[in-house]
Write a structure and sequence with these properties.
Layout lengths: L4 H7 L4 H6 L8 E7 L3 H10 L2 H8 L4 E6 L13 H11 L6 E6 L5 H7 L2 H6 L5 E6 H4 L2 E7 L5 E7 H4 L3 E11 L5 E2 L1 H8 L22 H15 L3 E13 L7 E11 L2 H11 L8 H8 L10 E5 L2 H4 L9 H4 L15
Parallel strand pairs: 1-11, 2-3, 2-7, 3-4, 7-9
Antiparallel strand pairs: 1-10, 5-6, 7-8, 9-10
Amino acid sequence: MTHSVTRRSLFSASAGLLAARRLPGAPFQAPVSIIQGGSRRQNIHDALKLIDREIRARLAGRKCVIIKPNIVNTARQLASTHVDALQGILDYLADRWKGPVYIAESSAGFTTEGYKNFRYEEAVRDHKGMKVELIDLNEEGQYEVLHILNGDLHIQPVRLAKRLCDPEAFVISSGILKTHNTVIATMNIKNMTLGAPLHYRRGESRRWNDKRVYHGGVRQTHYDILLTAQRLCRNWGAGVLDGFEGMEGNGPNSGTPVDHRIAIASTDMVAADRIGAEAMGVNPDYLGYLQWCGETGVGVWKRENIELRGERLESVRRQYRLHADLDRMLQWMGPLTELPPKLG
C-alpha cells in the first residue's frame, strides 16, 4: 500500500521503539523460522530451535515465562491452541529455563473450560520437572487500564491482564494461522492484544466484557489493536504460529481446516505474522493493524528486513479461502464513510 509523506511522518514519532528493542550489535533483520513436518509438537519445537540464539539472549534475566494460548472458543479445537503446540514450546524450554512458566489466557468464554476440553493439564503433567501452572486471567482479575477508541470513536478505558503487562516476564504467544471476521487474518498480534482485555468472573452478578469494545468498526478495531500492542510489546519474547491445521473461510470460529503442517516462530511477532500471512496466501497489506505495528516500531514489517530460516516460503505457501465478508472488511483501506460497517 502506498502512503503519503504526511502519514509517514505521523508514524515516525515512535519509530525509535523498534531500534530500542533490538539487542546491541544485533543485525537489523528479524529472524523468522519455518518448519514443515508430520508432527505438530515437533514442528513447534524445531521452529523455536532455529531461533535459539536470539531467544536465549532475550530470556536472560527474566523472572518468569508466560505462554499465551489462543482460546477464542472453549469447545472447538480447530479454533483454539492445541495442547501439542504447548508441548512443543515446553519441550524447547525444558533445557533452557528453570524458573516458573505460566500458561495464561483470558478466553472470550470461561478459560478453565477450554483448559479442560483441550487437555492442557497433559502439558503440565508431561513436564513435571518444570514449574508450569495454568492461569485463568479473568478469574485472577488483576489488570492495568488502557484507553482505546470505542465504536463511536470515543475514548473508553479497558482492563488488560496485569500479568501480560509485566515488564520482567518473557511472553510467548502460541497463535494459530486463521482467517478472521474483522481483520482478515488472526495470528500472534491479534492473539496477544485481544487476549489481554478481561471480562467478568464466573458467578459475578454484573456481566461485562472489555473485549467487546474492540469490535466497533473496521477502522477502530485495527487502531485499537495497535494501541494495545504498543502497551504490551515491551515483554514480548517470541511468537509461535501453529499451522499444522490452519483455518480458512469464516474464521476465527466457524471456518474449515487446512492441512498445512507448518510452524513459524520468531523473536519478533510482527515479522512472524507477516510471514504467516504470506504462508496463508493473504496480501499483508490487507492487515492494517499489522502494518501499523511495523510502522510505529512494535516490530519488523518490511519484507527486506526479515531473515527466513528453515523451509523456503514459496514451498509452504497455500491459498487460504478468506471470510465471506472480506470486501466489507477491506473498507478500512478506503475513504471513511459516515457509518462504518459493524463486524465481528
